[in-house]
Amino acid sequence: MTDALFPAYCLSCGRRTEEGRRFLCKSCFDLLPRDLPESDYYGAVARLAGLSPFAEYRSDLLFSRFNASRLLLHQIKYRDCPEIAYRLAKAFTSGHRAKGHFSDVSIILPIPLAPGRMRQRGYNQSDYIARGLSEGLGVPVRSDLLARRESTGSQTGRGKSSRWEELEGLFYLPKPSEVRDRRLLICDDLLTSGSTLLHAAGALLSSETPPESLSYYTLFLNFVP
Predict the structure, then answer these.
(1) What is the rounded CA–CA span in Å between residue 149 and residue 132?
(2) Please, which contacts does 19-23 make with residues 24 or more away whose CB atoms are closer than 8 Å?
(3) Residue 40 above 70 pLDDT?
(4) Phi, psi of 219 (to 5 degrees)
(5) How far apart are CA 138 and CA 131, in angstroms?
(6) Residue 67: its pLDDT value, please?
(7) Model-level pTM?
(8) Could you say which DSSP state residue 175 is in?
(9) pLDDT, mean over the chain
């Protein structure tokens, strides 16, 4: 009934979507950039290697200005459509479960927004990603265990060294005792340099969290040839 009264149209091709689909038709969903040999781009593990220990990293969509992922991410972050992040993350969890990914995770921690950005935007897209993962994986979300101080601006468009310096000391743990001896999955929307994930991980490691207990997930992986 909802689809009949309020028809949804595909964000990518503009055609009316099938019943039950709210933002992409099946054809465009199936064309999302997901499978590309890692030799064709600067892979996430290579970006993170040697900077901080972690047990596992996964993402589901390659992001670039030339594909539909860019449109989706902009809708999520800037067009007040965080529900897309939730639906995508949840849809992809069946594949992760089938492959045994994140099988030992006990808590999902979304990367928090800076307080000023949260007031401006009104929502944190990483919370929606975490909710989708939570429902699909059956793992609880704790948005209160990782916090972020105010920053001087967006990380978008910054160089790697600038992003790293800006994030130094930005994350902290309001309840450090509640993350000790837990298997933690840190999730965010996009991985580019990896500086955000690694600084969040640094805050967790400062609480004597074992390095092998950390895993990372980002919905999008920035394509870097």
Answers:
(1) 25
(2) 22/83, 22/87, 23/72, 23/75, 23/81, 23/84, 23/87
(3) no
(4) -65, -40
(5) 10
(6) 85
(7) 0.88
(8) S
(9) 87
